[in-house]
Specification:
The complex is a heterodimer of chains A (about 600) and B (about 375).
Chain A lengths: L16 E8 L5 H11 L16 H7 L7 E6 L2 E6 L8 H8 L4 E7 L6 H12 L3 E7 L8 H12 L7 E2 L8 H11 L12 E10 L3 E10 L1 E3 L3 E4 L5 E3 L2 E5 L3 E4 L1 E3 L3 E5 L13 E4 L18 E7 L5 H14 L4 E7 L3 E8 L2 H14 L4 E3 L3 E2 L1 E5 L4 E4 L9 E16 L3 H10 L3 E7 L4 E9 H4 L3 H8 L5 E11 L2 E8 L2 E2 L5 E4 H18 L7 E7 L2 E8 L15 H17 L1 E3 L2 E3 L1 H4 L1 H10 L1
Helix pairs in contact in A: 3-4
Chain B lengths: L5 E6 L1 E2 L11 E2 L5 H15 L7 E8 L7 H10 L3 E8 L6 H9 L4 E7 L3 H7 L5 H13 L5 E7 L6 H13 L4 E6 L7 H13 L6 H11 L2 E5 L2 E4 L12 H7 L5 E3 L4 E4 L2 E5 L3 H9 L6 E5 L2 H12 L6 E2 H4 L5 H9 L3 E6 L2 E6 L1 H5 L1 H8 L2
Parallel strand pairs in B: 1-4, 1-11, 2-3, 4-5, 5-6, 6-7, 7-8
Antiparallel strand pairs in B: 8-10, 9-10, 12-13, 13-14, 15-17, 16-17
The chains are: A alpha+beta (about 600), B alpha/beta (about 375).
């Protein structure tokens, strides 16, 4: 890559800029559409086209350059179009909202065969709330099972638009895509913002380049930023120089300046990833702005889990990796946690289960870490008998003398074919849900809303929903505040010692069953030791379930003479190594699998 | 003159290879016995310098040493250095009055008899050729020839063996009043024909057979035997009439003494180096016929490794092990854990602190040793 040369093209007038995001359910064709846009606008030739450019994070890493395409600039009919990427997952409302804040409009894409899904609905509402202009499109009209008519009607109904305003396209064949670009120019307003005011830019994403430090992705709101300009992040106070300004098209392309309404990147040279936060406002130190832009709402993680390195020597690597991830995933939180059972690790907070899954996958794949993750739990608000209020992120830290515990609730929306309404209701009831609302979206599809404790859905609700509705249900939820519940803490004791990593908080009605399942499961997972090992589940000092892992009666190498000493020694050395990898709880070697036992209980319960 | 006081001689020939065997063995090939003994004596010549003036023990193992052509066996015995204990392994069906006389006149003073079991159906599973009567007859022949140190090998955990079967085997063995007994749990080693045929069956029986080791130890110690090594027992107390009937050659291994091994596949450990002769018979014989050392592989046993071996071997014995000798190999925190669990005992005497396994510790010796290793 050549970094030194600047693009001397004419500056685009503000009224010829359009900033937009694509909102779509997974598999509804967002990435394909993005590819087609890049191809059609000549940003990439067909030969340069890699499949789904916007989603290829790993590929970019392999190339050693940061072209993570959080925002791609393309040109269409004399206009500059900035496509800002949004994640399409249920947990990432927060991320979507921050992408949307950099846009004036959104392209809402719905699969012509599937219709609107719960998540699309949620994100569409976000865009509407953010006063974005929405351009609806029905995709995959080339598929034989497509129902463009039905999907257009559903979408029109949702947005209060005439169905003929809904574009019908095939991102795969390219049909209708030029019309999409035209509609973006016609329907989405150009960015407002004062080009003459002191410069302000919103950081909506960032990444880390090992040679050039933190790279911030910004939407300039007011004024103009120049290369080499001294800058300051207004909330954090971090000062630095804009080493390079540029746009992604989609490769990094340096520019001399970025003006109001534009979207681009800033190479900061900052080596400390925590020195620049997404949501902060950049301004110039030469002529600083008075007020920062409204930042993002600080979302609080609601799902927590302990993350521990399998090999305790990897703790520093895990810490660095989390720091890196935090850089472009502001919703991830973590703090050091010490578990007697699992050693040093971090208690991490996530927006939801999927977020947790993605973080785990990135830690393992991008940072090559071998991890052990405890069963997730939600945040609880506890009031002790002495009237002290504490927020609890780890069941093992739940005070025992409690006046009251509150747990987070969600408003869950499920969209499902009408034949499955019964099974969804059954599942929701099992999970302490209370029915809220039922609505026919079309003759076939029903939107159900329930109020559910978040704690009841973090383990496997989504899996259950999918399997009981044969994959037809789509699901999304919004946090709906805290409510008191009849919750109790169940501790697990192995060899008489409490295993902090296995404590759980659960509704009293389920405590006995769950405790029994868990100790049974652990009896099978923990290998026999050289002594009897009791495994107990207890509420406070009251044992509610108990199993015993019987001691081994013999464990010897039958014979050992001159010729065989090396082999026998190696056998024992290997055995010792295996022991070192196990986690010790009260002198009992507990294999790592045992800590995952909690995760699988629910699915067993159902079979 | 060297310092090595233990000599192992490998005689690989067998009439038949048993399914569970994983030693270097050669079936039949009577015509090769002469050239093999030549090779053995050639190797002994090459290595003689490492041996001490007085050799303490010589052990002829196999294979089936007593299957070796009688004249060749006699010639070999004649050429071996004199030793305080000279043991020969024998299969019962090979023991005849002639053989017994040959061994006696060759200086053999201890015979280790591979009885394995006294029950036809179990011997059949093991593919052993001797009948229970042949085992009893072999012991009688050895006694008649004047052997007063006879050891019997027993195997337990044979597929299909019930606790009552084991009781009967032990009773039969005790009735023969051997000076020494080796009792091994059958090891189904991966890759052997036996494991292929019986592996699944053994896995099914594993839990039922867990108590067999205790049954063996209880029965034999009740019968007046000393459980002096994990798998070895000798007459003790009044029944031993003042003799120490432990296998002195094997004690050498367990105390991590140096030893010279000659023969195909034989292993030596001398001054921090372990040498393993290659297993091929033809190449072994050819090399020595040419006056060269046989092909072998070397393994350096450094101080730490040697410490771990001393620990692993020493803890098999009922005698205490000086911590000073194994300090580098010992995980101290594991030691205190195991002491508190009643699996290891520590005592102090003139040599400083010593450890040994408790009775329960000995039943779990493998796991305990693995945990104790640093």
């Amino acid at each position: 890559m050549v970094h030194g040369t600047c693009n001397m093209q004419d500056l685009t007038p503000q009224d010829r800029i359009r900033n937009f995001a694509i909102i779509a359910h997974i598999d509804h064709g967002k990435s394909t559409l993005a590819d087609r846009v890049l191809e059609l606008t000549g940003a990439l030739t067909q030969r340069e086209m890699r499949e789904q450019v916007l989603d290829t994070m790993e590929l970019e890493r392999e190339r050693g350059i940061t072209i993570k395409a959080q925002a791609v600039r393309v040109r269409w009919r004399g206009h500059e179009l900035n496509l800002i990427d949004t994640p399409g997952h249920v947990d990432f409302t927060y991320e979507v909202s921050r992408s949307l804040q950099a846009c004036e409009g959104a392209l809402l894409v719905v699969d012509a065969a599937q219709g609107i899904e719960a998540q699309t609905l949620a994100n569409a509402y976000l865009a509407i709330d953010g006063h974005l202009e929405i351009v609806p499109a029905v995709n995959k009209i080339d598929l034989p099972q497509a129902d463009p008519e039905g999907a257009s009607n559903e979408l029109g109904e949702l947005l209060g638009e005439a169905p003929d305003r809904v574009l019908r396209i095939s991102a795969k064949t390219g049909e209708g895509v030029p019309e999409v670009l035209d509609a973006i120019i016609e329907r989405i307003p150009p960015p407002a913002g004062d080009p003459d005011a002191p410069a302000r830019a919103l950081i909506f994403d960032s990444s880390y380049d090992q040679y050039r430090g933190v790279v911030a992705f910004v939407r300039v709101v007011d004024g103009r930023f120049e290369t080499r300009e001294p800058l300051r992040a207004m909330a954090q106070g971090t000062a630095f120089e804009a080493e390079e300004l540029g746009v992604l098209s989609p490769a990094r392309e340096p520019v001399a300046s970025l003006g109001a309404g534009e979207v681009g990147y800033v190479i900061t040279g900052l080596k400390d990833v925590s020195s620049l936060r997404v949501g902060d406002t950049l301004t110039s130190r030469r002529r600083p702005a008075e007020q920062p832009l409204p930042g993002y709402q600080d979302v609080k993680p609601m799902v927590f889990a302990g993350i521990f390195p399998t090999d305790s020597d990897d703790y520093p690597e895990l810490r660095d990796a989390l720091e890196r991830l935090k850089l472009n995933d502001g919703s991830l939180s973590y703090e050091p946690e010490t578990s007697q059972a699992l050693g040093f690790g971090f208690r991490c907070g996530f927006l939801g289960l999927l977020h947790m899954e993605i973080v785990r996958e990135r830690l393992e794949r991008e940072f090559d870490l071998d991890l052990l993750i405890t069963a997730p739990n939600v945040a609880y608000r506890a009031t002790t008998r002495t009237g002290e209020a504490v927020e609890v992120h780890n069941p093992a830290e739940m005070p025992r003398e409690l006046e009251q515990v509150e747990e987070p609730y969600v408003k869950a929306s499920v969209i499902v074919p009408k034949d499955y309404v019964g099974v969804v209701m059954e599942l929701a009831n099992e999970r302490r849900g209370s029915f809220d609302h039922l609505e026919y979206l079309s003759e076939e599809r029903v939107l159900l809303t329930y109020e559910l404790p978040l704690g009841e859905i973090v383990l496997d609700f989504y899996d259950q929903l999918k399997s009981r509705t044969r994959g037809y249900a789509s699901f999304d939820y919004d946090l709906a505040g805290f409510k008191p519940g009849d919750l109790t803490r169940v501790d697990i004791l192995v060899g008489g010692e409490q295993v902090d990593a296995l404590s759980l908080i659960i509704h009293r009605d389920f405590a006995y069953d769950r405790g029994r399942q868990l100790v049974e499961r652990l009896r099978k997972e923990i290998p026999r030791q050289m002594f009897d090992v009791p495994v107990q589940a207890a509420i406070g000092s009251r044992v509610i379930a108990r199993e015993t892992i019987k001691a081994r009666r013999k464990d010897v190498l039958a014979k050992c003479y001159g010729g065989d000493i090396t082999r026998k020694r190696k056998l024992l050395e290997k055995q010792k190594k295996g022991k070192k990898r196990m986690k010790q709880v009260g002198g009992v070697e507990v294999p790592q699998e045992a800590f995952l036992a909690v995760l699988n209980l629910d699915s067993e319960r159902k079979r | 003159m060297g310092h090595v006081r233990h000599l192992y001689v490998h005689l690989p020939f067998c009439a038949h290879r048993c399914g569970y065997c994983d030693f270097v063995t050669v079936v039949g090939r009577g015509e090769q016995h002469g050239s093999y003994v030549d090779a053995l004596l050639g190797e002994l010549d090459l290595e003689r310098a490492v041996l001490a003036d007085t050799v303490e023990t010589v052990f002829l193992g196999g294979g089936t040493p007593t299957f070796t052509d009688a004249a060749e066996l006699a010639r070999l015995l004649d050429q071996l250095p004199a030793a305080e204990e000279l043991t020969v392994e024998a299969n019962p069906e090979t023991v005849t009055p002639e053989l017994a006389r040959l061994l006696r006149s060759g200086g053999v003073n201890r015979v280790s008899l591979g009885a394995q079991s006294f029950q036809p159906h179990l011997l059949h599973v093991l593919e052993r050729r001797a009948t229970p009567d042949e085992v009893r007859r072999a012991v009688a022949i050895l006694r008649d020839a004047g052997f007063d140190n006879v050891s019997l090998d027993l195997v337990y955990g044979i597929p299909g063996q019930s606790p009552a079967d084991l009781d009967r085997d032990l009773a039969e063995a005790l009735a023969l009043e051997p000076e020494h007994l080796s009792c091994y749990e059958l090891e189904a080693k991966p890759g052997t024909r036996f494991t292929h045929a019986h592996g699944d069956e053994l896995e099914r029986q594993a839990e039922a057979m867990e108590g067999y080791f205790e049954q063996v130890v209880d029965t034999l110690t009740d019968g007046g035997y000393r459980w002096y090594e994990t798998a070895n027992f000798c007459l003790a107390g009044s029944r031993a009439r003042g003799r120490d009937l432990r296998a002195r050659h094997n004690l050498g291994y367990w105390r991590a003494s140096d030893y010279l091994g000659i023969g195909v596949g034989a292993v030596s450990t001398i001054s921090g180096e372990r040498r393993r002769n290659a297993p091929g018979l033809a190449r072994y014989v050819a090399a020595l016929a040419a006056g060269a050392r046989p092909p072998s592989e070397l393994e350096a046993i450094d101080h730490e490794t040697s410490g771990r071996e001393k620990l692993m071997l020493g803890l098999r014995l009922d005698e205490p092990l000086a911590i000073a000798d194994v300090a580098s190999a010992l995980d101290r925190s594991a030691l205190s854990r195991l002491i508190s669990r009643g699996l290891v005992d520590v005592s102090t005497n003139g040599r400083g602190e010593e450890i040994r396994l408790t009775r329960r510790g000995r039943f779990l010796g493998g796991g305990v040793t693995a945990e104790l290793m640093a």
